[in-house]
Write a structure and sequence with these properties.
Length: about 220
């Protein structure tokens, strides 16, 4: 039987080559999750993802794209959770599932050790908005960009303000011209330094398996 890590090897090699040829300052790595729902009764390794009749699998994928064009280069990590456990392209054993963010943190740490020719920047949607995980990534020297919710408190110039309030105060400056669906558009960027000082709160949301637990 061929292992997932062996199947992943040529894709990782393609990522090394593509990053060197098609990335400038960074390689962008997008992490996301998909729920694979199947009604086929012969798939005995399905599990109840959200409720008894929601049978299927949970798939986490990590895709490297160019920081110059946004074009995909190669998938570099995947994790499939089934009724028998967790199988990944970076671990040989079938193991107990983790929460989404605990698992993606493990994948990020694995990818950081692969020696790509450009530093990785890990991108996630709002599911990645977790203070506890921010601190884990920060302590590991990982660079990331996460879309956050509009209500968490951020510390700016000694005051705690909602992220939405801070966003409304930003001054935007023209950064560059970008191509969107073949047409040029002007990109504007606004930024301010903030600190995240609030405690992380334990959460059981977005579990990949009923046995999992997480924190935010």
């Amino acid at each position: 039987m061929v292992s997932l890590s062996v199947l992943q090897a040529p894709l990782t090699a393609a990522a090394h080559e593509g990053i060197t040829e098609r990335c400038g300052s960074y390689a962008l790595c997008i992490h996301d999750w998909s729920r694979l729902a199947y009604r086929h009764a012969n798939k005995a390794d399905r599990y109840a993802i959200t409720h008894a009749s929601d049978q299927g699998y949970d798939l986490q994928s990590s895709l490297v794209i160019s920081d110059q064009t946004g074009e995909p280069i190669a998938p570099v990590a995947q994790c499939l959770v089934s009724g028998v456990g967790r199988q990944t392209t970076y671990e040989e054993e079938v193991l107990t599932p983790r929460t989404h963010l605990d698992e993606v943190s493990r994948a990020m740490e694995h990818l950081e050790g692969l020696g790509f020719s450009r530093p990785l920047v890990h991108l996630m949607d709002r599911e990645g908005d977790s203070v506890g995980h921010y601190r884990r990534w920060q302590s590991s020297g990982i660079q990331w960009l996460v879309r956050i919710r509009d209500n968490p408190q951020l510390t700016y110039q000694g005051s705690a303000l909602a992220s939405k309030t801070l966003a409304e105060q930003l001054t935007y400056h023209r950064a560059r011209t970008v191509q969107v669906q073949g047409k040029p558009h002007e990109q504007y960027v606004g930024e301010i330094p903030v600190s995240v000082t609030r405690r992380s709160k334990p959460s059981c949301k977005k579990q990949v398996h009923p046995r999992s637990r997480g924190s935010r």
